[in-house]
């Protein structure tokens, strides 16, 4: 062998084995659940052919642009060569292509054209679901753009935002605008009411100039933004807290010298993930703006934007899980260990199956919220639908955000060491998943929103929630009986919790908030999986997924209540965390 020159690993020889890489195939054709869901609810040939063609484009070309956005991240040029301040955010060609593609494919427009009536949002979000993991985070500006269009539409499309609305919702790339959502300041991103220092100084023509500092502004290359500020009275005084906040519309434009009007870009954030997209700190130094809300109704008026961006966030979370699974199962058919392909190792398949169950649950939960949104926007929502949409929006955002991190992390491990290697593109999926539970409301803050929304509606939302119509079809399917029983039992545990909690102090409920939100997510998702498995076109895998989902503790809030975890743990928790004593 040596004489014949066959000895491997000598001199320049690096061995003859090279692992085949996982291949991204058409994400629409690869997704049985998505296709099944659409076949069930929206069996339009036009939609199937559009999603199939788009999926092919995503796999063959767009995914490469997404990688380019990651490899060639945005940078900030503060000064031109002659020392003039320009604050130019330089983005890659791929990022610009994403903008054109988004307009052409109607990724925002579909939601406003409403060509498919109450199912238009499901169609739009299905498309975004295919796009998201390959989009180089362009789904972030699209989410905010969609949210801004929704706010404008709900306030009334008139001057000065008529033109903006038409640009946000157009399919023409040369007219298409994206929007920012500038809410967070240094003192607070969750507690916006107390954290906002930005003031709005009234101008004689009825417009305003904004002065303040926005601490996180994503996709800062946007054409416009919605933001919050406090209107100054003639003495310069403002009203503190949430009641002092109003909603403003501002365009991001440049003067004759090329300087941003009323904005200085302080710096770009150096982030764990989402590096494809610029996130800046902005000094607002007299930014021209128009007030869109009644004075003091800023938070309530931007709430529509929060609803939309939180749904987009959940779509991205479900899509990240789906993408890592598609790649992992492809890899399992290419990688051999201990003499057989990974797909022939039952323990590896069990690991992927657990991820699959989470991913299916997330998909059905978020699609159901999109369905409800579509019903509300088409004017066909019942009171029950409206309550459910309000309740489930924070629930789906907080639950899928957490699932995405866990599933994607497990997914990376399924590639072994290669899952940790940057130029495979895999680590970026995990980095980008981590933000999904932070921005647009953290898990705890959204859990408290769930609580408030229950309290504000005098329990109406929970009555809506307890409606068990989703389980109606399941009585005839005996294979699903164990899952149905678990969901019904969990629902009565939840009802019992609610009855007990109603008699307790607010601090009790606050401690239960996260577990309550998780319980709502798990029980409702269980019911959705069962409902989908009852559909006549469902597969045995749909039944198996429902059974597996329902094997987990569906109602952790009842468990922890029984353990007394919400009674008096506050001081014990603090003592545990800050423990300094050594015996
Ligand atoms: O993070 C951001 C952008 C990231 C980039 C975009 C990513 C998009 C996804 C991409 C996927 C790849 S922008 C920053 C986002 N910031 C947040 O989400 C803030 C989190 N904090 C909260 O949500 C808090 O709960 C606050 C700010 C809403 C709490 O403020 P207040 O002032 O204490 O609010 P209140 O008192 O709870 O509510 C004031 C009013 C009430 O109405 P009225 O006065 O009529 O009773 C509420 O019912 O606002 C109403 N309201 C809502 N209505 C509050 N929240 C909502 C809601 N979610 N839906 C409907
Ligand atoms: P804090 O509010 O300080 O929260 C810290 C911790 O305290 C969290 O764990 C939180 O859950 C917890 N906490 C807070 N209040 C409570 C409570 N009452 N009870 C229990 N726990 C609580 N913002 C924008 O406005 N526009 C943007 O474009 C934007 N882009 C972003 C991009 C990135 C990459 C990131 C990371 C953030 C971005 N943000 C943006 C900001 C984001 O919305 C906030 O960071 C987020 O809302 C949390 O606010 P905070 O950072 O002030 O955290």
Automatic annotation (TrEMBL):
Domain of life, source organism: Eukaryota
Record domain Acyl-CoA dehydrogenase/oxidase C-terminal: where: 296-452
Cofactor: FAD
GO molecular function terms noted in the UniProt entry: acyl-CoA dehydrogenase activity
Residue ranges annotated for the Acyl-CoA dehydrogenase 11-like C-terminal domain, each copy included: 461-578
SUPFAM superfamilies: Acyl-CoA dehydrogenase C-terminal domain-like (SSF47203), Acyl-CoA dehydrogenase NM domain-like (SSF56645)
Assigned keywords, A-Z: FAD, Flavoprotein, Oxidoreductase
Signal peptide residue numbers: none
Stretches assigned to the Acyl-CoA oxidase/dehydrogenase middle domain: 181-285
Pfam families, sorted: ACDH-11_C (PF22217), Acyl-CoA_dh_1 (PF00441), Acyl-CoA_dh_M (PF02770), AidB_N (PF18158)
Protein name: Acyl-CoA dehydrogenase family, member 11
């Amino acid at each position: 062998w040596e004489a014949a020159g066959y000895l491997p690993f000598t001199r320049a020889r690096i061995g003859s084995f090279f692992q085949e890489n996982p291949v991204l195939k058409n994400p629409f054709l690869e997704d049985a659940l998505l296709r099944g869901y659409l076949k069930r609810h929206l069996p339009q040939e036009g939609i199937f052919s559009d999603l199939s063609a788009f999926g092919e484009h995503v796999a063959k070309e767009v995914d490469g642009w997404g990688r380019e956005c990651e490899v060639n991240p945005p940078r900030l040029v503060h000064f031109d060569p002659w020392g003039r301040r320009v604050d130019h955010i330089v983005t890659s060609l791929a990022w610009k292509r994403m903008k054109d593609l988004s307009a052409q494919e109607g990724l925002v427009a579909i939601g406003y054209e409403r060509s498919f009536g109450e199912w238009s949002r499901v169609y739009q979000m299905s498309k975004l679901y295919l796009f998201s993991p390959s989009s180089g985070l362009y789904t972030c500006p699209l989410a905010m753009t969609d949210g801004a269009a929704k706010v404008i539409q709900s306030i009334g499309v008139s001057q000065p935002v008529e033109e903006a609305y038409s640009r946000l919702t157009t399919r023409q790339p040369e007219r298409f605008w994206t929007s920012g959502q500038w809410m967070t300041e240094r003192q607070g991103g969750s507690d916006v009411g107390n954290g906002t220092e930005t003031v709005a100084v009234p101008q004689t023509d009825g417009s305003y100039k904004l002065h303040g500092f926005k601490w996180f502004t994503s996709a800062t290359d946007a054409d416009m933004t919605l933001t919050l500020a406090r209107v100054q009275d003639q003495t310069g005084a403002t009203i503190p807290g949430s009641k002092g906040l109003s909603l403003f519309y501002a365009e991001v434009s440049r003067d004759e010298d090329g300087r941003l009007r009323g904005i200085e870009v302080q710096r770009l954030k150096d982030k764990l993930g989402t590096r494809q997209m610029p996130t800046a700190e902005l000094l607002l130094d007299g930014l021209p703006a128009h007030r869109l809300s009644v004075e003091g109704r800023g938070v309530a008026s931007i709430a529509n934007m929060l609803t939309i961006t939180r749904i987009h966030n959940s779509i991205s979370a479900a899509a990240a899980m789906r993408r890592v699974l598609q790649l992992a199962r492809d890899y399992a058919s290419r990688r051999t260990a201990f003499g057989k392909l990974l797909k022939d190792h039952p323990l590896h398949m069990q690991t992927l199956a657990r991820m699959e169950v989470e991913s299916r649950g997330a998909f059905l939960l978020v699609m159901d919220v999109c369905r409800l949104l579509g019903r509300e926007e088409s004017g066909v929502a019942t009171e029950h639908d409206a309550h459910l949409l309000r309740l489930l929006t924070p629930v789906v955002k907080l639950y899928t955000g957490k699932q995405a991190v866990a599933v994607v992390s497990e997914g990376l491990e399924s590639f072994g060491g290669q899952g940790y290697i940057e130029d495979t593109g895999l680590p970026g999926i995990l980095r980008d998943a981590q933000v999904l539970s932070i921005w647009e409301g953290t898990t705890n803050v959204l859990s408290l929103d769930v609580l408030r929304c229950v309290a504000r509606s005098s329990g109406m939302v929970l009555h809506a929630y307890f409606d068990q119509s989703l389980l109606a079809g399941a009585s005839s399917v005996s294979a699903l009986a164990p899952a149905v029983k678990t969901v019904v039992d969990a629902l009565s545990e939840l009802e019992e919790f609610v009855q007990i909690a109603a008699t307790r102090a607010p601090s009790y409920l606050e401690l239960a908030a996260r577990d309550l939100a998780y319980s709502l997510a798990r029980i409702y998702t269980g019911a959705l999986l069962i409902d989908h498995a009852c559909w006549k076109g469902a597969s045995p895998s749909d039944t198996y997924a429902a059974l597996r989902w329902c094997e987990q503790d569906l109602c952790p809030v009842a468990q922890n209540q029984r353990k007394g975890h919400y009674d008096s743990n506050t001081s014990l928790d603090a003592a545990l965390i800050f423990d300094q004593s050594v015996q």
